[in-house]
Structure formats: C-alpha cells, structure tokens
Specification:
CATH class of the largest domain: Alpha Beta
Strand content: 15-25%
Largest sheet: 6 strands, antiparallel
Helix content: 25-40%
Distance between the termini: 20 Å
Strand order of the largest sheet: 2-1-4-5-6-7
CATH superfamily of the largest domain: P-loop containing nucleotide triphosphate hydrolases
Number of strands: 15
Order of helices and strands: EEEHEEEEEHHHEHHEEHEHEEE
CATH topology of the largest domain: Rossmann fold
Number of domains: 2
Radius of gyration: 22 Å
Amino acid sequence: MPGMAVESLTLSHFRSHVATRMTLDGRAVALFGPNGAGKTNILEALSLLSPGRGLRRAAPESLSRQPEALGWKVTATLRCDGRQHEVETWAEPGRPRSLRIDGKAAPQTALGRIARILWLVPAMDRLWTEAAEGRRRFLDRITMSFEPGHADTVLTYEKAMRERNRLLRDQVTDEAWYGALEAQMAQAGAQIMVNRRAALDRIAAATEGAKTSFPAATLYLTAPEDASASPEEPAPLAEAYARGRRRDMAAGRTLAGPHRSDLSATYAAKGVPAAQCSTGEQKALLISLVLANARALSALIGNAPILLLDEVAAHLDAARRTALYDEITALGAQAWMTGTGAELFAQLGPRAQGFAVFEHDGASGLHSHALG
C-alpha cells in the first residue's frame, strides 16, 4: 500500500452528493459514469484536503448542494507514513470554510504538512495559452507541494501588496509607510523567488533520465523582479519597489515583483514552445509534469503524493493509457481518475478500485465495480 492515501471519504450535501461514503484500500481509484453524474465533485472534495480553494477555485457557498443550501461537509481519513489523521472541512451558510485536523481547529496551511495532493483537470489544458496568472498558480502549487510553508509566504506577500496598492490608488506619498510595506514584500518576495527556483530544479532533476512514455518539458521562469534578491539580502527587491513608486502610482498597482513572473515550457525533444504545440502534445506535457512532480516528491519525502486526474484517460490512446497506469503503479501513488466508461480503466485490472458513479432522483450515488 502507498505511504500516502485516503482511507475513507464522506461527502455530506457537497455539490450533487447528499450522503456519499467511500472506503478505500490504498490502491488507485477509478470513477466512471456519465457526464454530470458527480465524478469530478468527488475529486473536488478531495482537493479541499489541501490548502486553497480546490481544483475549481470555488467559493465555499457555491459548494453546497442546491436548492437546499444547508451547508456542506467533507470528512476523510488520511494516512501518511503509517499515521492516520482525521480531517473535517465544512462551511455553513453565510460562513467561511472551517477545518479540523484530529479534532482540533487548524489553518488550511496545516493540510500541506499532512498530505501532498496534485491534480490535473481539463481546464488546465489551456495552461500554456491562457494568461500568466494561471501559470503562476500552477507553479505555486508545484512549489507548495515541496515546501508547504510557501503558501504562508505567498499570503504574506499578497497582504502587504494589497496594502501598498491601496496607498497607490489613494495617491498617498508617505515614504515611511511605503518603506515598511515594501520591506515586508521584499522579504516575502525574495523567499517566493527562491522557493520557485528550487521547485523547478527539483522538477528538472526528476525529468532528466526518467523512464516515461510522456514527453519531457523544459521549464523556464521569467521574473521581472530583481533576481539578485534573496531572503538573506532582500534589499535589491525593496529598492526596486521604491524606484517604481511613481510609475506604480500612475498605474494604481504594483507593476514589478514575483506576482508578475511567468512560467513557460518547451517540448524538450522538439525544441518547440508548449504554446505552439498541438492540443494533444500540450496534454501530454502536462501529464509529464505532474508525473515528474510526483517523482520529485517521492524522492524528497519518501512518499508519492495523492493524484487527482480528471478525465485524463479520455484523450489518450490505449498504449498511452497503459503507460500512464504503469507509471502510476510504479510510483506507488494513490491516483483518483475519472472517465465515462469502465473500459477506459480495463488495463488497470486489480491494481485499482473501481466505482460506478450515477445520478438518481437528483443526487449522486456510487457502487463498487471490478475492473478488467
């Protein structure tokens, strides 16, 4: 059994699920059924076992089953390195999301120290052609998988930047006020830069020489901020903010810093930018990156992460599907995968638990189903 896995999952009034309970044994999980049955909703619930807003980035109130709008709750037993943790996260109507770990209230960032969860969803197929914000978010999730504290650092930076932007919009000229905020931004920003570069180095190391059927991607980070800054010496970044105040005041926002960085990728074997690759090649590159992230994590912490792969098999031919399943099995990862039919997962056979997901009387349900 993998060292990191979900052993039980309960969804209460979450999206289309009124009361869904699952017992798992550590193997990969294949969820199949018609579109709209509630498969992705299960993956979304699992993604809330990691810091952040989940794979759809939904507001807490939108996760509640409609039209009842009674609130929702997700409960799970997580195992990591032989230790079990009970995790409960929920939101009541009109209230923010709450979290308990082993019966005690906890901040969301604590989830990153219990389990590492990576995901790939169809919306990410546009990653290389959409705005830079999506790529930064993708990079920060990779970074956070290696360094859970990265989430706190990003929050610190964004909070200080929001305050600075407010001063800029209000045309405030108090140098002391700016100096204090810019010092905070420089310290956090320099750490963000170091964390991101370290994450890319880990991905590169896990990609080099890997035995995989998916094309390798070479990643590049473009950083308009002063790259000479470091957590030990953040002054260059603070000075860059100070120099840019007049320009930033005219724009009403901060125009330089790690929040303006961008991530680009090249199909290594062809030397072609990912944005210029075919749709199929872009999908294969994303799968390759998720697998590289999982290999790098396994090397770092001794456990493969939990993988959430939504509709990943639908766009792969039989040979590529077999290769994907073989790589997941070799990693020892508990991968949760969705698809419209059981035949998509036949190559997994007894290596996975199968569940047929269906809709009945307006609610999602499921039952076990042998694969292969």
